Amino acid sequence: MKNPPKPLSSLLEQFSDSNKPLQSLMSQSAALKELSKALKTILPPNMRPHVRAANYREGTLILHISSAAWQMHLNYMREELISTLRQSVLPSLVSISFKINPDILTSNLQSTELSEYKLKKPIAFTLKNPRKLSLQSSEILINLSHSVSPALAKALKNLAIHGMK
User: Fold this and answer.
1) pTM, two decimal places
2) What Pfam family does this protein match (any one) (predicted)?
3) Pair 144, 123 in one domain
4) How far apart are CA 65 and CA 74, in angstroms?
């Protein structure tokens, strides 16, 4: 063979030396890959296939999430994630933004793993520091429930009772 095949990585390295935009893109891609690895070590195991670091710009980390349900879980973890990522990987991190991308799950798991994953019972999600409603806030909710519709009153009372636990 006159010209044996070369690995793509060697070609990219060869062209990136003379091509600044390609070099920049490759370094950003490598940084995002490392960031994704760090993120996966922080997240609970059941959440890992549903989240991917998509971009980092101006102090904001943009994460792609597979569904709104997982986004809700991550919203509860947002401050904890920011502080952990600041300490370990990104000291300049200011905020985290979420974008829903349903294709993440299928791209992260192969088809056999995907079917196994769907059959498993989901792991319960727990916060390290669950928020509690103060007694004063519970009383305000109960007082407010007297002046609203019955359905909303019931919901407010349930929230107040749950907050007192």
Assistant:
1) 0.54
2) DciA
3) no
4) 9
**What residues make up the domain containing 145?**
132-165
Q: Are residues 37 and 108 in the same domain?
A: yes
User: How many C-beta atoms surround the C-beta of residue 14 within 10 A?
Assistant: 11
Total count of domains within the chain: 2
CA 87/CA 81 separation, integer angstroms? 10
Q: Which residue has the tokens 């792609």?
A: 64
Q: What is the pLDDT of residues 45-56, one digit of tens each?
A: 888 888 888 888
pLDDT, one tens digit per residue, over 68-101 is 999 999 999 899 989 998 888 888 889 999 999 8
* Burial grade of 50 (CB within 10 A; 0-12, 13-18, 19 or more): buried
Cα 79–chain centre separation: 11
DSSP 48: G
Pairing between strand 95-100 and 60-65? parallel
Q: Do the beta carbons of residue 163 and residue 133 sit within 8 Å?
A: yes
CA dist 115 and 105 (Å) reads 11
